[in-house]
C-alpha cells in the first residue's frame, strides 16, 4: 500500500479518536455550567477560563458551538476517508470504527443478539443526552445572567443547528459503513467483518435509544424553562 494513501483504516480510526476527545471535552464544561448555574455561584472555570456567572452566557454558548462544529467536521471527514478506502482497507476501517474503544461509540457493534444490541445502543442515547445537558445548562445559565442580545441569540441558534449537523455526521458515517458492507455482499473483491442483516437489530435499538434521549432531554429543558430554575 502506498504510504501516502488517504483512505486507510488508521486514518479513519484517528478521526473517531478525535470525535471521542471532542465529546469528552464537551461533557465536562456542560456539567460545570449546569451545576454552577443551578447553584447560582458567582463564577466558574471552563476549559481554563474563569467566567463570572452573571455575564458568562455568550462565552459559554460560543465554546459549545465551537466544540459541536469541530465534532461535525471530524465526523464528516471520517466519512470522506472511509469512502476513499480501497477494497483491501475497507474491512479493517469498518472494524476499527465498529470496535473503537470510545465508551459512547455510536457505531459500536459487538455481535448478534438482543443483549449485544442493547449494550451497543446505549452510546447513541448518551451522546444525545450530553448535548441535552448542554442545552439545559444554557437554559439555567440564561436565568442567572444579564440580558441576552442579538449575538447571544444567534449563538444559541447555532447550538441547535450544530447539534443537528453533529447527528447528521454520525448518521452519514454509519450510512457509508452500511454501503461498504452492502457492496461487499454483492462482490468477492471486498471483505468486511459482517453483513447488513447482522446489524439491523443494532440499528433499530440505536435509533430507539436516540429517540428516547431526545424526548427526555427536551422534557428536562422545557421543565427548567417553565419552572424558572
UniProtKB/TrEMBL annotation:
Keywords: Membrane, Transmembrane, Transmembrane helix
Superkingdom field: Bacteria
Residue stretches spanning the membrane: 21-44, 56-76, 114-142, 154-174, 203-222
Protein name: Yip1 domain-containing protein
Protein's organism: Acidicapsa dinghuensis
Lineage: Bacteria, Pseudomonadati, Acidobacteriota, Terriglobia, Terriglobales
